[in-house]
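Entry 14. Structure prediction run on the chain below.
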Amino acid sequence: MDRKRRNQPGKAVTDQRAGPMRRGPRIDSPEPAEPVAGGGAVGAPLAFPPQRVPWNMRQVLALLGAYLAIVLSFNLVGRFAFEMLNQTDTATAISARIGIQIGCSQAAFLLLLYWFVKGRAGGGIEAGRMLGLYVPRPWKALESAIVPAVVGAGVVCLIIVVNSLLARHLQLRQQLVVSDMEVAIRRGGAYEIAMCAVFAVLVAPFVEEPLFRGLLYLPLRSRLGPVGAGLLVSLVFALVHSAWSALLPMFVLALAFTWLLEATRTLWAPIAAHMLFNGVMIVLIVKGAAAAH
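Output returned:
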């Protein structure tokens, strides 16, 4: 009899010890969010800088090796073009060398960088989030970045002044690319100035900041913390970008870029500061060339 009652549909099942069991609305358990690289979930904003990234230092060193191979290869091609054109026009020869060594090498590495990060992040949007290029609320992020941006711009301008004074009074050696740009601007015309400005302001920051403050800084940050990783990456940045005599200004500049990254939580801040620095340097070179004439 109890078994028949228990099996009848639509009837409440009675337990003598626990009392009647009432029917209620069915509540489905929420499905777990799909995890993504970096510790977040699909549809959820990824905190930047992430606590971990889907690449390690061995892969970064391999990518840096590929970058050096690309740069050396295009340097050889640029040197060959310079030797071929230098017999007729020195400014044109230097412009060709700058275009090949900087433009072609940076464009090739930018494609390699995008392919590397996108493949490990699982998509273009996730790659942008992981590198701090994707900003879900741009106006709010811009509002919160006003004070760091003003401070960073002041620091960048101060470093430009100090670097210019040191280069003028102590005869500091400039980076080879900067020396080539100076010669091309002084001996060339509007085309050489525009080409150097495009490469320095619109190309180099979008390659170097994801490389140094992205691929290299983020895995080191998870191991050494922001201070240790910032010091190490800034030292590498200074060694790559300047001669030994101008090492300190470039080191401080790289520290300022890293501070902007941490203060604003986006890679766009050091990219903008990098563009500002290179742009002001181009203006100073042009003014120096005009004064020389």
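Residues 10-16, 18-22, 24-45 have pLDDT under 50 and may be disordered.
Filed with the rest of this week's runs.
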